[in-house]
Design a protein that fits this description.
about 140 residues, little secondary structure, two-stranded antiparallel ribbon, two-stranded antiparallel sheet, 1 helix, about 5% helix, elongated
């Protein structure tokens, strides 16, 4: 995911949160590639961004509409609701929800594709493809 910050110094006060991307500073009519792209908005700080600027996949963007998505600066662990221990915070590659490694029973952040329990669950039968592990 992008390491750029939504909250850019003194410019933040002049940004209309629902009108432009906090990363490329463009509106929905033109992203970094010069294409129309709807903005997504953080449910906590109300800053907006193009999914492409935030390096989010089309699949992830579809899922974001089903919960209160938070930007990287506002993200909290979905289990303990704590934003701390950032070095132990990992993000589901399917839904972008945040989890501390220790809250899901891991000692290290997994390499490769990782899915949370919500995304690794079969919608029809409830069986998990992984129990908070790599997918």
């Amino acid at each position: 995911k992008s390491s750029e910050s939504f909250h850019g110094g003194s410019e933040r006060a002049s940004i209309k949160h629902d009108k432009i991307c906090g990363l490329c500073l463009r509106g929905p009519e033109r992203n970094r590639r010069g294409e129309y792209e709807a903005l997504i908005k953080c449910s906590t700080c109300q800053n907006s961004g193009h999914p492409s600027c935030l390096e989010l996949t089309v699949q992830t963007v579809r899922i974001l509409g089903s919960y209160s998505w938070q930007c990287m600066e506002c993200k909290v662990c979905m289990l303990c609701n704590d934003p701390g221990d950032e070095e132990k915070m990992m993000f589901c590659d399917d839904c972008d929800r945040g989890y501390h490694t220790f809250c899901v029973g891991l000692t290290d952040i997994p390499t490769g594709h990782w899915m949370c329990k919500l995304c690794s669950s079969c919608a029809s039968c409830g069986v998990h493809t992984s129990d908070f592990s790599r997918g």
